[in-house]
Amino acid sequence: MSASGFAAREADFDVTGKRVTVVGAARSGLAAAELLADRGAIVTLSELRPEAPETDPLRALGVRVELGPHRHDSFTQADLIVLSPGVPPELDAIQSARSRGIPVIAEIELAYRWLRGRVIAITGTKGKSTTTALTGRMLEVAGFKVTVGGNIGAPLSAQVNESTPDTFHVVETSSFQLEQIDRFHPWIAVMLNFSPDHLDRHPTVDAYGAAKARIFENQDANDFAVINADDPAVLALARHGRAVRRLFARRAAIAEGTVIDDGWIVERRTERTDRLVPLEAIHLLGPHLVTDVMAAATVGAIAGAAPGAMTAAVDSFRGLEHAMELVADVHGVRFVNDSKATNVESALRSIESFDRDLVVIIGGKFKGGDLTLLREPLRARAKAVVAIGEARPLVVEALSGAVDVYPIASFGEAVERAYALARPSGVVLLAPACASFDMFRDYAERGRRFKEEVSRLSRQ
């Protein structure tokens, strides 16, 4: 997109004196409220929690903070509603605003209106955070000005003031964010994979897919769609896009795109093949993470990063916390924290990363999907499953007969039982296939608690 395009994007969006209600006081909502206040809006921040001390600095900026049940008049009398990703758009107050013609947009849509740099947006059911972080690292090492955030790190609204025409904004985008976009227009849009997820929020798998596919909606022939050719669902969701397609595939045979060749990730073209990153530079657990590296390398090649810079970034990258994170070896038993594996497909990929003697901790708040898909991979690799959280009965029902399943109520006891079952030389894998909200604030708190329990075992 040209500099004139950035100017046009900002010119017709002015919130000065407008009444804007921001819904949700998590990271994205706080950043959006601050940005709007800085830009002259009359801001109300509506948060269901009865207490939100993190909103105190916003009050000093003139933001009205409403805690507890949403007040309908704050929605129906607004000029604009901005949603945090965790807020369901079906709330009565939001629907009342829509019925009056009041626009409702996502926080990333708000921020996009004022960004001056180009957006690289990354989505998928699994691997978004790893790919986003690694893409940002590659571009930084290559010497570009880069911000990384969105669904991880700094919200996009917190990046607006540092945005320049030469900035690359590498943004992790979830279905919750994408379902409320309007003009959001990535220069490069990446879809890593697709499988059923978030069915506690989206009414159907098709609705979830439609939200994901919106990442391509506003692209044109000057943009790029980076697509996983190993995943038929991704190919189907991207089929109507107008951007230049750049395929990557670890398994499928493709004539052009990013593939594996003779120990290298390469970019295969009609006239030549360019080496990008040697496989020996990858230090991540699990073959599925090689696919994430391939996606990042494809983006790097489009953006003009040199292969040497991409290789250096990959070589120094040890992955993200809570994503196939090797925690410790305790008396011969390895502990791996994949708390970010919050859906069945993610857990499946984690399980398939190991050969044998596996004990998997599965459970939490079930989001939908088919847990029986784990039966055969577990039968081939696992000694046992330890079931936790609200989903314990579902895990027992889905997996019994394929593997021994031990339902445990306490998380600490679950880790201890898994350790006993994995001895003397197995692997304990936290791959819950579920959200964490029944027992923890989020997947990160669950992962940290897992590491604390492992540390306790190591001291025994």
Please explain how this structure is put together.
Helix 7 crosses helix 12. It is built from 17 helices and 20 strands. It has 3 domains: 15-102, NAD(P)-binding Rossmann-like Domain (Rossmann fold), CATH 3.40.50; 109-315, Mur-like, catalytic domain (UDP-N-acetylmuramoyl-L-alanine:D-glutamate ligase, 3-Layer(aba) Sandwich); 325-458, Protein-Tyrosine Phosphatase, Chain A (Alpha-Beta Complex), CATH 3.90.190. The termini are far apart. The chain has 460 residues and is of the alpha/beta class. 33% of the residues lie in helices and 22% in strands. The chain has helices at 3-11, 27-38, 56-60, 72-76, 92-99, 107-112, 128-141, 175-178, 205-213, 232-237, 288-303, 307-315, 344-351, 375-381, 392-399, 411-422, 443-458; strands at residues 19-23, 42-47, 64-67, 80-83, 104-106, 118-123, 145-150, 167-172, 188-191, 224-228, 244-248, 257-261, 264-268, 273-278, 325-330, 333-337, 358-363, 382-388, 405-407, 427-430. The strands form 4 sheets. A 6-stranded parallel sheet has the order 7-8-6-9-10-11.
